[in-house]
Amino acid sequence: MSTVEVNQVSKSFGSRQAVANVTFTVQGGEVLGLLGPNGSGKSTLMKTIVGIIKPDAGSIQVLGTNVATDPVTVKRMIGYVPEAPRLYEFLSGVEYLDFVADVHGLAKGERQERILEFLKALDLEGRENELIHGYSQGMKQKLAIAAALLHHPRVLILDEPLNALDPRSARIVKEVIHKFRNNGVPTIFSTHVLEIADAICDRIIIMYDGRIIAEGTTQELKTKAGSAGSTLEEVFLKLTGTSDTREIVEALGR
Amino acid sequence: MNSSTVWHLAIVLTKSQLRSNQRRKFLAKWFSNPQIIIILDALLVAILGISGYFLVSKIPQDLLETFGRLEVEGLIGIPTITTFMIILFGILSELSQPIQSTSTDLVNWLPISPSEYVLGSIISLSYTYSFLLAFFLSIALGPAVYFGHSLILVTSAIMGLVSLFIGSSAVELLRAVTNRISSSFYRKSGRSGIFVRLSLTIVVLVFFQLLFSGRVVVSLLGGLTHTVATIWYVPVMWPSLVVQTLSASIDLAPVGFGLLSLGFMFALFGLAIGMRRAYWVPVPVSIRLSTHPYRSSFSRFQIPGLDAAESAIIRKDLCSLTRRREMARFIAIPFVLAASLWISVYPFGSSSQGLGPATIIPLYLIPVAIFCEVLSMTSIGQEGSAIWNLYVAPIDAHKLVRAKMLLTIMMGTLFTVALLLAVAFLSKQAPGQFVNLLLLGLVVVLEESALGICIAGKFPDFRETVRSRYVSLWGSILGTMLGLVVAGATAAPILLADTFQIAFPPTLIGIVIGFLVFVALWKLAIRQVNGLLTEIQV
């Protein structure tokens, strides 16, 4: 049974169509990579799945619950990291995590254990009592990831979660995603780093101009692009029609 | 120092100041170009100057001498008031900067020297706030020409310009000092530093608001011209003393004070450059609230009757109110309002025994209503771009409305009781009246909290700019007007009790009206917030 079903979803902002008639499903324990150039509609699509943007058309089901009719139940099941998350900078790191734990109704003992685990794993130990305002971008990103995973989510929606992370933390996050996958949690994951997508995604969707232009495993995409021996980057550039970069590079390098 | 760099930086900083507060497209179009300030200055001088001349010519002959004397006093006061005003605006602007925009990162990696930055910033500040000087001079222009005080007017204008630069240098100096002091202070002081900052911000806001209340300004201006002998050693007064000694025809004194003024202006400028050079890169403030290892204590304080999520939102909003520099002005509102209203109405020196309900109820209910209304209608917009945290949280509109409203009710109740104690002390209320006023105040707190959430849900403004309102312009106007109407309707039975004979106790009628209004507004608030939660606004 599919755990996330996106069915003919469209969303426009004024005259600009951000998402156009998108349909896909994600199975339990599957990591789906969303790729696409800037402005291709990935973040908008993710926000509609989380239930914070209302689609103009189509429907979304998360673990059998309709996002439009019961968004609160869906939000309880989802762990979401937005692109460039803005946190409450006037709270300390642990106050923020406590806030998220309270909002999700985590019991005190469990919360303490989980928060300590995340602080240690993501190298935030020793800085947890400082106001978030003084954190680096990477530390804020780690905190947002910890907050998304704190309540044992049953679905992960991660919008460029590895942005600004140091190599050690990025590796930990990738392994955490792997662990969630082994536990049957589906993950929708967007990134611009194609090597990462190649390494951790079971299936990839390439979006362009709000539409899905290709879908499949890395190998299937390479075959579709007619270049079985090439890298995912070459496939991506070919499919999105942005491969002709030579003139731009020459102009910039002058 | 490269003059071209200074010039271009000044233009960029002026555009930045002009555009940081723009909310509407038609304003953006008009105010995006720095030349608009010269046009506004010229318009002010032309319109107010010409109309001032005609108004003076209509003054009866027997009052002309007194008016002429007042006009000279005004010309003497212009340079000093200009300096005070620009410092006031500068401080208010600094205090209302959102925490995210206090860094001057951009200039750190551009090839600009501290002296070029300071001069560019001073020119930009002086130019942007030149409308203050233009306003004062345009009021004085007509009478000065009429009375033949053109030389004093020109001197006042020149010294006003010097004062503009003195005020701008002082603001630049303050910025550098506050950057440095606040960074080192907060690093050492932690939680107590936050409390000290909040208290100091409120004191500064209340002090400056009261300083510029009508009564105080009039007595200050009057005092300035009569106490020259005792104020000559106050450098900020030197530009005014040039005008004063010139009007009194004291030989050489204008030249002496003029040179002193210029010296003071260059000294402040040099000091500002020195400070900026020393503390060029602002140190990121890193406030540690505790040195203990993590123990889940934040959620220990559960509010009775509320679930964990609602209590967490209230605690988070309380931290926002007390820890964010730009939120301090909302806590200062009741103090400023109550003090301003009472200073302008209270019969100092005479008996206050005669203050009846028609005077006391507005003086008591207006600050309560406006405080609760403002706190409540800004409660959603103040989330800024961090609002996504609430959108992704598994909470519905009921919970969000209850949490947001309860914080206002808690703060409003505290303020109502404190203000009522002061009112009872000043107007010597009987215990029965005290209870009536308390009940009335609490009902108004409920109504305004619910009304504020309706406005906050319908007209939120999530932009984080200097002096953010957190609610749209129309929302704030509508909210304030409706807030006063609602408070007035609740108090009406008591205010009209003497005129119309009513069978029921007027306070009881007021409470029933207030409660019905509250229930209606509560339902409307849920509907508005439900609509808001369907789609994220930022």
Outline the secondary-structure elements.
The complex is a heterodimer of chains A (254) and B (538).
Chain A: E1 2-13, E2 16-27, E3 31-35, H1 42-50, E4 57-62, E5 65-66, H2 71-77, E6 78-81, H3 93-103, H4 108-121, H5 137-149, E7 155-159, H6 167-182, E8 187-190, H7 194-200, E9 203-208, E10 211-216, H8 218-224, H9 232-239, H10 246-252
Parallel strand pairs in A: 3-8, 3-9, 6-7, 7-8
Antiparallel strand pairs in A: 1-2, 1-4, 4-5, 9-10
Chain B: H1 3-20, H2 25-31, H3 35-57, H4 61-95, H5 105-108, H6 114-128, H7 130-147, H8 150-189, H9 191-211, H10 214-226, H11 228-231, H12 238-247, H13 253-278, H14 308-323, H15 328-345, H16 357-377, H17 388-391, H18 397-427, H19 431-458, H20 473-495, H21 506-533
What does this protein look like?
- The complex is a heterodimer of chains A (254) and B (538).
- Chain A has 254 residues and is α/β, with parallel strands linked by helices.
- Chain A has helices at 42-50, 71-77, 93-103, 108-121, 137-149, 167-182, 194-200, 218-224, 232-239, 246-252; strands at residues 2-13, 16-27, 31-35, 57-62, 65-66, 78-81, 155-159, 187-190, 203-208, 211-216.
- In chain A, a hairpin with a 2-residue loop joins strand 9 and strand 10 (211-216).
- The model of chain A has no long low-confidence stretch (mean pLDDT 89).
- By secondary structure, chain B is mainly alpha-helical.
- Helices cover 75% and strands 0% of the residues of chain B.
- Chain B has 21 helices and no strands.
- In chain B, helix 16 (357-377) packs antiparallel against helix 18 and helix 18 (397-427) runs antiparallel to helix 19.
- Chain B is globular.
- The chains are: A alpha/beta (254), B mainly alpha (538).
- The A-B interface holds A 47, 50, 52-54, 71-73, 75-76, 78, 80, 82, 85-92, 94-95, 98-105, 108, 111-112, 115-116, 119, 128-131, 133-134 and B 99-100, 284-292, 294-296, 298-299, 307-309, 311-313, 315-316, 319-320, 323-324, 384-386, 388-389, 391-396, 533-536.
